[in-house]
Amino acid sequence: MAHLRYLTSGESHGQGLNTIVEGIPAGVQLSEAYLARDLARRQKGYGRGGRMKIEKDEAKILSGVRHGVTLGSPIALWIQNRDWENWQTPMSVTPITEELNRITRLRPGHADLAGIVKYNQKDVRNILERASARETAARVAAGGIAKRFLEEFGVHFHSHVLTVADVVSQPKGPIDWQRVEQSEVRCADPDAEAKMIKVIDAAKEAKDTVGGIFEVIAEGLPIGLGSHIHWDKKLDGRIAQALMSIHAVKGVEIGNGFEQTRSFGSKVHDIIEPWAGGGPKWKRRSNQAGGLEGGMTNGQPVVARVAIKPISTLAKPLPSVDFETGEVVQAHFERSDVCQVPPGCVVGEAMLALVLADAFLEKFGGDHLDETRRNYDGYMKQTGQAR
Ligand code: EPS
Q1: Residue 193: CB within 6 Å of ligand 1?
Q2: Which partner from 25, 148, 281, 291 sits 20 to 30 angstroms from 354, CA to CA?
Q3: Ligand 1 pocket mutation, candidates 337, 341, 345, 346, criterion most atoms within 8 A of CB
Q4: Is the CB of 312 under 6 A from ligand 1?
Q5: Bridge partners, residue 252, by sequence
Q6: Is 348 among the domain residues?
Q7: Atom 21 in ligand 1: which residue has the minimum CA distance?
Q8: Is 154 within the bounds of a domain?
């Protein structure tokens, strides 16, 4: 059983999104303002469509927190959809008398085809509303809670865009995270940033979409989260699943996993050296493993790269089939984004935080934060990792 559990609910144009997060110990400071920061980061990004001008995502804390501190009980969050105002009849919970135009033209690449078959639907809207990446707002709110908890133990998250279409970010020197936060495409390399914006503009002009790769990083983790002993305890597998579940994601890489296949064993492993400074007794010459060996954290930053496909809703639709008439038609188009890679970064951080908080609680437990801290401090001291 997961030590940190969460569910989300909500349709893209319904009343809003819900999340319940269960497993966070008592005693963690938490505010709506803290969660709002990541929700706002997710809403940004060059290549977003018209919807983000309508929404201003805020998570209302409905339970599990008293006087700014968690109680150890489930934390329920509510994010209102401002666009609901325009969708009250088409998305009404109760039956309506109006005749609505059903969506019957299937979009290749979307959940449309498999969804209508599997759920026995006559209107693609009954699938696309939940398949929409709007749901990622709820994940980011849940991930914010996981981040707040991990922050208590010095764990921090970063993310940046590595590629958009064929444009590759090649930052000179260490990544300037402030620059990334200010960049419209969350890119650390100013030259690549300008090119990414151009390629997104060109795709929009051509009524097309573009994808790319982003990188998520978690720093400050102890050695020993996850385990080598069984497939479902391996942390790299759990991280890959969580990141792969993000809408439009088609690939996940830990460290430089794919590049390693083009090299030699003697070149790709992170040499271990003695370390006489504070903290662990070892250091590494590199971090090609992305902080994970044998399904466990090895004390290096956890690094995962995530490939997002070009969004499947196209303003110049692909040829397709009307599932009702069987006729060859153009796929359905409805307002959408041109590029989702920059907001994907923030969703990736949230998913990584949720998995790491779960693994952290699996290792250290604790009904109250003080108890978690006692267990953590004892382990860090005993294993020579205390900083
Ligand atoms: C999405 C389509 C667009 C995006 C949406 C995901 O929404 P709409 O159909 O209302 O224009 O803006 O993303 C969000 C609403 C969001 O919050 O990220 C889709 O089809 O997946």
Answers
A1: no
A2: 281
A3: 337
A4: no
A5: 306
A6: yes
A7: 132
A8: yes
Provide the residue type at 69 as one letter: V
178-192 pLDDT, tens digit each:
999 999 999 999 999
pLDDT-derived band at 277 (thresholds 50, 70, 90) equals confident
Q: Kindly state the helix (H) or strand (E) to which residue 319 belongs, with its residue range.
A: strand 319-321
Residue 337 φ/ψ, nearest 5 degrees:
-95, 160
Q: What is the CATH number of the domain that holds 168?
A: 3.60.150.10
pLDDT at residue 1 in the model: 62
Residue 13 domain flag = yes
Q: Ligand 1 pocket: which of 51, 58, 338 to mutate (most atoms <8 Å of CB)? A: 51
Alpha-carbon distance of 36 to 38, in angstroms, equals 6
Please report whether residue 387 resides in a domain: no
Domain containing 312 equals: 5-382
Atom of ligand 1 nearest to the CA of 343: 18
Which residue has the CA at smallest separation from atom 12 of ligand 1? Answer: 51
Please state the domain count of the chain.
Answer: 1
Rounded-to-10 torsion of CA 204, 211, 352, 142: 30
Task: Report pTM.
Answer: 0.98
What tens digit of pLDDT does each residue of 21-40 get?
999 999 999 999 999 999 99
